[in-house]
From TrEMBL:
Name of the protein this chain belongs to: AAA+ ATPase domain-containing protein
Xref: PANTHER family: NB-ARC DOMAIN-CONTAINING PROTEIN-RELATED (PTHR33463), RPP4C3 (PTHR33463:SF198)
One Pfam family hit: LRR_RPS2
Coiled-coil stretches noted in the UniProt entry, renumbered to this chain: 26-53
A molecular function GO annotation: ATP binding
Keyword field contains Nucleotide-binding: yes
SMART domains documented for this protein: AAA, LRR_TYP
């Protein structure tokens, strides 16, 4: 290329400049004419030879050297001029002609080479753009990726999603769209086995261009493990911002590990989009054949919105007869992928790779367990925990909480690989139908062999002797089975039996005799009244779920199951926890929820359960005062208590060492909402008390002081939280809800002397509310202020939500110096507080303490920022005059929603400047400020912005 550039440079200089060397005309004109004729002929011959080489190069698809075509044109012009000159020999003898001999010299370069070998066409040259019309899921993602690549602040973009969801196709679509924006684009398929030498070679030329300053895009497709860009020769980082990287992977975590700055998820297609794509593959016959169209619709549903599977299945069935379509649908619906045509099975293989490359054996085990539960339904993490503990899939397990943590890690891993999907139900995950088929396929090929017939409407179960012996796990979840085989079944390898959600009332005595390896037995949601004698033979049983068998009363037989670690007895008819249960020295969890007839736990039973970590007693009849929580305090492993009872009789003897529990969910008395619906992972100690007196709470004082979430409802003899319930500050309290407590005047109420004595001059102690994240105050008729103590002892740095409803004596909420510390506040909601005049007040307003005086100019000059405040709702506040009564500037960079309803006295939001960039205020077609809008609400309602 350098030679070619030099040559064309010479041509330009010599053709368009002055000739540096001229032919010395000899005096003999005849000699000069002959010489000219010879040189012209040589130049013409050379031109012809070069022209032939050009034709050959074009036929081969090679690229011509720069300047060669220009030389042809110049040479042709010179030959033509020489020919015209020589036509009149007489004139030639009288004049002279200057043939540009440099043209001949330059032509010698092209005699041997006129082109460079054509590079192998890249996929960009060959790629056929896909039709994304009406496939909005991919169109929107395509635009999002291009936007990210166009952002100069973003260098590495990642796209991730389930195998077969269309990541590679989208990456190629992106390249086709942006190819003119980059000097070079390199597309490299990394795959499962990373060949660093190959990648290094593929990016070698592009790396040179990057170093030289050219803008280059490198696509690394199908990454399965973390790849250091420097190890494969890709210049990246702050010194090479001209290099853009696009990664595709099945794992979000992997993208994050490779420092992706913009991570984009590729979701499965919606139902209508999947049908559009399927029709494009199969063709017009779907519109012409009504019967086939109905079958095809069902086939598309089985493809789960995965473009790869949709296209593979569509291609396989495109020209097949309708009968074969029906057979394929039947096999798809019955999850028999081994019987499906090889073309279809290839799609399943794509998903299986995601499983094969999971590094965690615990994640693999959880993945396979998920396929035992309801098809297309949610899988509860609690099931994965109890089944996992029963099957001992967790090595070196420390506790049940450790098992929960490891399940969460496994689930996160599976979700990042798109083998599991998020669920709308809290503490659940979902498994896609297609992925579930893959799980069953994997199970059928491994050491485990599953038999899964979930939700099939089965009314009986008669296993075949020839096939049943190899099963390790059987799930007959949610069928209509009433009777079980009366014979002794032979399942020598069976470790898991799930009969949840059937109509079984009687289990034959011999039923469990031939399955003595069972470790997990789920008989919940049936109609069982008596336990069969053969149950005692399951000596390796570790998890037993008998929940929701209302007719079950006698459980004394369970004392024989010495290895039992998890026992679920919720919603059964048991009346007593018998002495035999004390033999279960391996028991970690005893679950007793809504056992309405349970009124007695035999003394000494709990203290004998030396491995017990958790006890769940929720909404059981009777006060169970005989329980004696002191027994639990002797158990070294006991860490978690779930307790719901009608009165605090449990605590008549004190709480012993219960304040050392890592988790407790204790509800005393009945209120409208259950604390057990609270699923906030970082709040682990919750206490709710309703309809009692402070005197009843005194035995629980230490428990109260270690709570993270407190709910107090309908307690008349309480005036404040501190000092009534707390000694000093709220050391651990993160959330508080007070309702229907008429005499509460403050959350904190101390006199000057008490405050100074508690905190002490020069002594560093934790401030009030320091850990508080949520405050909910409802129907507190006497509430005047949140606190009655010096402001310097107040800190709301962690507060995220404050909700105040029907507190008619409340006058103001926060003084501005406290409000300046609301750095995490997100939501404010205030309703039906008749005397509230201001939400944020100047420091000299509405305070009991006269020692805090505003320094002149201080408040005016100060600037307050609510960095995370998102939503403000003010409703039915008849005396409210403004949100802020001071004059300093306030910024609301995150505020997106404001609602003001029936605040009749409110004429302004506040004095000073209020910067709310995310909400545009308009009045009669013109832009305005919030202060212009507020007076217009009158007795009605104004609402700006949206939280969507």
């Amino acid at each position: 290329m350098e030679v070619a550039n030099n040559l064309i440079g010479k041509v330009v200089d010599l053709v368009f400049g002055l000739v540096k060397q001229e032919i010395d005309y000899v005096r003999n004109c005849t000699e000069n004419i002959n010489k000219l004729r010879n040189e012209a002929q040589k130049l013409n011959d050379m031109k012809g030879m070069v022209q032939q080489r050009i034709h050959l190069a074009k036929d081969k698809g090679d690229r011509l050297l720069d300047g060669v075509q220009n030389w042809i044109e110049k040479a042709e012009a010179e030959v033509s001029k020489a020919g015209k000159f020589l036509e009149g020999e007489a004139n030639a003898k009288k004049t002279c002609f200057n043939l540009r001999l440099c043209i001949h010299e330059d032509g010698k370069t092209y005699e041997s080479c006129v082109s460079l070998p054509a590079p192998t066409p890249s996929f960009v040259d060959l790629y056929e753009r896909k039709n994304l019309d009406d496939i909005n899921t991919h169109k929107f993602i395509l635009d999002e990726i291009i936007e990210a690549l166009s952002d100069e602040s973003i260098q590495i973009v990642g796209i991730y999603g389930l195998g077969g969801v269309g990541k590679t196709t989208l990456a190629k679509e992106v390249v086709a769209e942006v190819k003119n924006l980059f000097a070079d684009i390199v597309f490299i398929t990394v795959s499962q086995t990373v060949d660093t030498k190959r990648i290094d070679k593929d990016v070698e030329a592009a790396a040179k261009r990057i170093i030289n300053g050219d803008k280059v895009l490198i696509v690394l497709d199908d990454i399965w493990e973390e790849l250091l860009l420097s190890d494969v020769g890709i210049p990246c980082g702050n010194d090479h911002k001209n290099c853009k990287i696009l990664l595709t992977s099945r794992s979000k975590n992997l993208c994050e590990a490779m420092n992706v700055q913009r991570n984009i998820c590729v979701n499965t297609l919606k139902e209508d989009e999947a049908w559009i794509l399927f029709k494009r593959v199969v063709g017009e016959r779907l519109d012409k054949d009504t019967r086939l169209k109905k079958i095809a619709k069902a086939v598309v549903q089985e493809c789960g919105g995965l473009p790869l599977i949709i296209q593979v299945v569509g291609r396989a069935l495109r020209n097949k007869p309708t009968d074969l379509w029906e057979a394929t649908l039947d096999r798809l619906q019955n999850h028999a992928p081994l019987d499906i045509a090889p073309e279809i099975r290839k799609a399943f293989t794509q998903l299986k790779l995601s499983y094969d490359y999971l590094e965690s054996e615990e994640a693999k085990s959880c993945f396979l367990l998920c396929c035992m539960f309801k098809q297309a339904g949610s899988v509860y993490l609690t099931d994965l925990v109890s089944y996992g503990v029963g099957l001992a899939i967790f090595s070196d397990l420390i506790s049940l909480q450790d098992a929960r943590n490891r399940v969460q890690i496994a689930v996160d891993t599976l979700k990042s690989s798109f083998l599991l999907l998020p669920s709308e139900i809290i503490q659940c995950v979902q498994m896609h139908d297609v992925v579930r088929d893959v799980a069953l396929l994997i199970a059928s090929k491994g050491k485990d062999k599953f038999f899964v017939a979930v939700g099939k409407g089965l009314t009986e179960w008669k296993p075949r002797k020839n096939t049943s012996e190899s099963y390790t796990k059987i799930s007959l979840l949610f069928n209509k089975i009433r009777e079980l085989p009366d014979d002794e079944l032979h399942f020598p390898l069976l470790d898991t039996l799930n009969l949840r959600g059937n109509e079984v009332s009687v289990i034959p005595d011999k039923f469990f005799g031939g399955m003595r390896e069972v470790k997990v037995l789920d008989l919940s949601l049936n109609q069982i009244s008596f336990l069969p004698q053969s149950l005692k033979l399951l000596t390796k049983l570790r998890m037993l779920d008998l929940s929701y068998n209302n007719g079950l009363h006698d459980i004394s037989m369970l004392g024989e199951l010495k290895d039992l670690e998890i026992l679920m007895l919720g919603f059964t008819g048991i009346e007593i926890i018998p002495e035999e249960i004390g033999q279960l020295t391996s028991l970690r969890l005893l679950h007793l929820e809504s056992c309405e007839d349970l009124s007695h736990i035999t003394p000494g039973v709990l203290s004998r359960l030396t491995s017990l970590e958790e006890l769940h007693i929720l909404d059981c009849a009777g006060d169970l005062a005989q329980l004696g929580l002191v027994e639990l305090s002797t158990l070294k492993s006991f860490k978690i208590l779930y307790l719901f009872a009608s009165n605090p009789g449990f605590f008549s003897q004190g709480t012993a060492n219960l304040e050392t529990l890592t988790d407790f969910y204790i509800q005393i008395g009945y209120i409208s909402e259950s604390i057990f619906d609270i699923h906030n992972s970082h709040i682990q100690r919750i206490l709710s008390i309703a309809g009692n007196e402070i005197a009843c709470m005194r035995p629980m004082k230490k428990l109260i002081q270690t709570s993270e979430h407190i709910v107090l409802d309908t307690i008349e003899d309480i005036e404040s939280i501190l000092p009534c319930l707390y000694q000093e500050s709220f050391n651990d309290l993160k959330s508080i809800k007070l309702s229907n407590c008429p005499n509460v005047s403050h959350l904190v109420k101390t006199r000057d002397g008490e405050a100074m004595q508690n905190f002490g001059e020069g002594e560093t102690k934790e401030k009030f509310f320091a850990q508080m994240e949520e405050i909910i105050l409802v129907c507190l008729k006497g509430l005047e202020l949140l606190w009655d103590c010096p402001h310097q002892y107040i800190s709301f740095g962690s507060l995220q939500t404050i909700k105040i409803i029907d507190c008619p004596s409340l006058v103001s909420l926060f003084p501005v110096d406290v409000a300046q510390g609301l750095v995490n506040l997100s939501d404010i909601e205030i309703q039906d507080c008749d005397n509230l005049e201001v939400v944020i007040s100047a420091n000299d307003e509405h305070t009991t303490y006269g020692e805090i005086e505003q320094t002149e100019g201080t408040e005016t000059d100060a600037e307050t920022v609510f960095p995370w405040l998102t939503s403000v709702t003010l409703s039915r506040l008849s005396r409210l005059e403004s949100f802020y009564s001071g004059h300093s500037a306030i910024k609301y960079p995150s505020l997106k929603f404001i609602k003001v309803k029936r605040c009749l006295s409110m004429m302004r939001w506040g004095h000073g400047v209020h910067d709310i960039p995310n909400i545009k205020f308009h009045d009669q077609g013109r832009d305005c400020s919030i202060n212009d809008i507020i007076p217009n609400q009158a007795s009605g309602e104004i609402e700006f912005g949206s939280l969507k």
